[in-house]
Amino acid sequence: MKTDKELKELVKQTYSKIALQDQDKNKASCCGAGDCSTEVYNIMSDSYETIEGYNPEADLGLGCGLPTAFALIKKGDTVLDLGSGAGNDCFVARAQTGEMGKVIGVDFTPIMIEKARENAKKRGFNNVEFRLGDIEKLPLTSDVADVVVSNCVLNLVPNKKGVFQEILRVLKPGGHFSISDVVLIGDLPAELKQEAEMYAGCVAGAIQKETYLNLIKESGFTDVKIQKEKSILLPDDILKNYLDEEALALFKNSDIGIFSITVFASKPNNCKPGNGCC
Fold first, then answer.
1. What is the pTM of this model?
2. For the stretch 244-272, what's the b/e string if a residue is b when 16 or more beta carbons lie within 10 angstroms of its beta carbon?
3. CATH: 3.40.50.150, 3.90.930.50, 3.10.180.10, 3.40.1400.10. Which one for 4-266?
């Protein structure tokens, strides 16, 4: 069993590699984790192609939803994107918040930050910035963001409750988040859970759906609701890397499921330091 530190280092190394590889390779893989499928489509993500602000150069094909489509971003908002990658969701958020708003992306992979900053510079965006940092300890002061978004990132973080507590801290009272992530119903076979590639590929780091939602509520958020949910069906050519024929048949005939969910929650209006909420 890897430690939290080892898992985070694995994710950092994997996503540093992803930042340098071909976008088509990312989109044909398991969250960009590698050559884990010969089927040319992205298993997790939805298409951004018709969304205002979308730029193909910033889309590495690593998402599992469209959080910005559900985030209720208004003109002038300050938006924070956790695990911002090459900047895709930040640029979509900028189209929604406008020139009077501000978008901040945080990522702990230096090459992703470099890539995102290059993409922002090409487009002359002076109200989009990218900060190197760990989302378990965000490089922001408290009560600064109107909206937080994230796309298929929290499932990679060992200390998920710590991230939700940080989100609560940086949101303004009355602010909210919309996060797309991967969750489970039932227990994955041990072979899938323990395999490093599947962890970095967004599956083995996922937790139970009810546990995920409870972590949000326990962190002090209200109005918790699922905005979108879809089943993720992994192709046989991925599963056969980890399961023999008998185990594969049992898995496919079980009630165990892998799902992409987009979750919304709000920080209470009266949530301020000292009143027991934060």
1. 0.85
2. eeebeeebeeeeeebbbbbbbbbbbeebe
3. 3.40.50.150
